[in-house]
Amino acid sequence: MERLQTDGKFFRAGEDRVHVRAVTYGPFPGGWPTVFEPDFARIAAAGFNALRLYQMPPAHLLDAALRHGLRVFGGLKWASSMDFFRRPELLASARVDLAEGLRDTSGHPALAGVYIGNEVPADLARWMGPAKVRHALEDLITLGRSLGPHLLFAYGNYPSTEYLEPENADFTAFNVYLENEPALRRYLRRLHHIAGDRPVVVSEFGLDTRRNGEDRQAELLGQAIRLAREEELAGFTAYAWSDRWWNAGAEVMDWDFGLVRRDGTEKPALAAVTEAFAHSPAPPRGMPRISVIVCTRNGRERIGGCLEAIARMTDSDFETIVVDDGSEDGTGDFVARWFPEVTLLRLSPGGLSAARNAGAAAATGTILAFTDDDCEPDREWVTRLRRTFASGRFAAAGGPNLPPPARTRTEAVVSAAPGAPSHVMLDDEEAEHLPGCNIAVTKEAFDAIGGFDPRFRTAGDDVDFCWRLRDAGYRLGFAPGAFVWHWRRPSFRAFLRQQRGYGRAEKLLLEKHPRRFTATGEAIWHGFVYNGGPLRAGTDSIIYHGPMGQAGYQSVIDRMMPLRGIEPRFDSTRARCQLAMLTWLQPRVRAWERRRTWTWRSPWTCRRAPEPGREIELWSESGKTRDAFLRDLLAEGWKPGGATDDWDVEKDGTRLLLATESGDGPGKRTLVRIWGELTPEFRL
User: Fold this and answer.
1) Helical (H) or strand (E) element with 586
2) CB contact at 8 A, 331 and 352
3) Contact, 240 vs 192, CB < 8 A?
4) Which of 304, 326, 365, 483 is the most buried (most CB within 10 A)?
5) Minimal CA–CA distance to 86: which of 121, 133, 118?
6) Are 97 and 77 in contact (CB under 8 A)?
7) What's the whole-model pTM score?
8) H helices then E strands: how many in the chain?
9) Helix ranges restricted to H, 150-250
10) Closest CA to 151 of 54, 73, 76
C-alpha cells in the first residue's frame, strides 16, 4: 500500500488521487475485538478505504487493515478535556504516549496518519487561552512528525472552536453534525476558507438512530457523502461503525450512531453509504468549450512545467493558447518545438494585459481560463471550473493558487511572506477578487467590459478587471478545488523586486480607481483577504464566542486571514528571522512605489486582558456543569458578558468565567476565574 500524501487540496497515493472514505472504529466496551477480519471485510465491502481510531492502533489491527486495503488514522488519547496547563503532567503524558504509540507502528504501511486530539471543549479552550491551546496542539504535531515524517497529522476540530486550527497540520479535519442540507452545504464551503491551502476532511458525521430513526440516518449519511464530494472535500468520515461505544469510563447505552447494531446486524445506513460512495459527482452536461490562455515573456525556463501540467488535465474539451509577449530568450521557439499541439501567438512586447487580450481574441472557446507561465494547473482544474459555471450564477470563476513544496529554505520563507496573489471573498462562495494566475471568465462578460486594460503591463490587471466585472453587474464564483501550483520568487531579491512592481501597479490602480483606496493608499476591500494560512487564533486575536461563550460557531474576527506558515521541514530560527525581515520590508517597499511614502505601521499588536483576582474549583458528584451554574447565576441577577468578552457573567463590577473539566466517571470539576470581589452572600 503506497503512502498517502497531500496533493494540494486533495490526497494522493503515488500518482493516483485518493478520496478518503473513512469510518470511526471503537473504542469498544471490553477493548479491541479478538479478531478484526469479520468487521474489516464488511467495512471494505461497503466502500470504505480508511478507519479513524480514537487511540493508537496495535500492530495486529494494522496488519488486518492492510490485508483488507484499509488505511488507518490513529488517534492520540489524552486528557484534552482538562486544564492541561494547570496540570502539566497531562500534556507531558500525552507526549510520552504519542512517542510510544509511534515507536512500533510509524513504519507500518497501513498507518496513514494520526489525529493528535479531538474536540478540546470550547469553554476550556477559552479558559486556558486559545493561542496557548493551539500552540500545544502544534507541539504535539511537531513531535509526531519528528517520529513519523511520512505520516499525516491533523486535529479533530469542531465548529465551536474554529480558531484552534493548528498551523502545521497536514489537513483540516472537522467533526460536523448538521442535519439540514442547505446548512451543511454552506458550512462545507466555509471549511475551505478555514483550511486555507490544505485539504479538508469531515472527520465525524453521523446521526443517532435511537432519537431519529434508522431511515433518517440512512438518508442523511448518503446526502452528506454526496455533498462532501460536490463541495470538493478530500475525505469523509462516517460516525460510527457500531452502536457499541465506550466513553468516559463507561459503555454509552443511550446513543446509537452505528452503521451496525449492537448485535452486529446492518442498519439501512450501511447500504446507503455504499451507494453514495459508488457515485461521483456527474460532470456538467452541455458545457461550452474552454480556452486555456497562458501569457509569457522570457519564460523559457518555466513554461515547460506549465504546459506539461495542462497536457495532463483530465478534461478533454479545451484548447491551449500560448501568447509570447516579445520574449528574447527563445520561449516561442521552445514552445513551437516541444508543444506543437498548442496555438502559439508571437507578439511584439506590449505588456501582460495586451497579451491576454490577444489570447482572448484568438480563442474559440466561450469560457476563457487564464493562468501564468510560472503556474502548473491541477489535473482537474478545467473540470472543477466547469462545475462552478454550470450553476449559471457566475460570469467568472477561479480557485486558490498554492505554492508547491519548497525546494530550499529561501523558497519556504518567500512562500510564507505577505504580498502573494490572494483571493478576496465576500462570503464563502462569491469572490470580490480572483488573481490573474487562476481566473476564468465567459467570453461574453470579457467582451462586455472591454477585456484587460493595456495600461497594466505587469501587474494590477486582474484587480482592475475584477472591479470592472463587478461594477458591470457580473458575479465571481470561487471553486476551492480548482487550484494551480504557483511558483513563488526564488530569491529574496526577486521577491522584493516583485513587490516593487506590485506597488507601481497599485499606483496605476489608485489613479484609475481613487474611490477604492484609503487616504493612505491602501486598497479598500469589502470582503475577506485570504492568504493561504489556516484560520487560527493568535495572542492578540478577537474571537467571537457568543454571550457566555455559548455560540455554536466561534471564530476569529478579522478581515485579513492568516499567512501561511513556514514549511515544517525548513522551519528554523534563521528562517523565522528571514521571514520577519520580509514581513517588515514588504509593505514598506510596496507603499514607497505606490505613493513615495513609507509606512511605519507595525504588523505586531498586543491586546492584554485584565488579570483575574483568583480562581476556585467546584466539584459535583452528580455531574453539574458550567451551563447549570450559569443558569443559577442568571437567576440571581448576573448579566451575560458580550460576544467577544473574556468572561461569562458580571454583576456589580465582578466578572466570572466558568469552564468544566471532563474525565472518566459522572463527576465534574468546574473551574471559576474571578475578576473583582465576591459579596459574602455569593454562592454556587
Assistant:
1) helix 573-595
2) no
3) no
4) 483
5) 133
6) yes
7) 0.93
8) 19, 34
9) 181-195, 209-212, 214-230
10) 73
